[in-house]
Amino acid sequence: MAEDLHWPTLEDAHAGDWALPGAAAECLEAIVRARRSVRGFLPRPVAEETLRAAFQVAQAAPSNCNVQPWRVYVASGDSRDRIRAALLQVAGQPGRPDFDRGADFKDEYRRHQVECAVALYKELGVERRDVEGRKRAFLRNYELFDAPHVAFI
Predict the structure, then answer these.
(1) In this predicted structure, what is the pLDDT of residue 1?
(2) What is the C-alpha radius of gyration for the chain, rounded to an integer number of angstroms?
(3) How far is CA 61 from CA 20, 28, 91, 98, in A?
(4) Torsion over CA of 5, 10, 11 and 16, rounded to 10 degrees?
(5) Per-residue pLDDT tens for 1-53?
(6) Alpha-carbon dihedral of residues 33, 37, 43, 46, nearest 10 degrees?
(7) Strand locations in 64-148, DSSP E?
(8) How far is CA 85 from the centre of its chain?
(9) Which of 12, 53, 101, 123 could form a disulfide with 8 if both were Cys (CB 3.0 to 4.6 A apart)?
């Protein structure tokens, strides 16, 4: 892409007119619209160079005061397997989160949450009254959806 994607400075007289160039805007839209939540992975590991490149791009994401305070830790192989086993041992037990996840969803957000859950369980072939099926679907989270890597931020 040969277009210049630099952001204008505040002193730039035309800063208010700046827009993402057409090709970049189309690419960004395609990426955003293609986004999906994946709940099943191939067992094939991702090359370390590919993981590093993805995290390097992600490092450019905006953050408060532009400090990008995150650190990413990736577990693969035996480490990932030990984490998965430990998670499965405590699955379903009351947790002790180290952060406040905020209030429960309300109104339209709660409706959307329920609609998404209904669609997911329908796709999985799990009916509302299928307690064992719902439990198996819940445990997939702790099984890391069979992903060959798990990232902690």
Answers:
(1) 45
(2) 21
(3) 16, 14, 32, 24
(4) 70
(5) 445 555 566 677 766 676 777 788 888 889 889 988 888 899 899 999 999 99
(6) 50
(7) 73-76
(8) 22
(9) 12
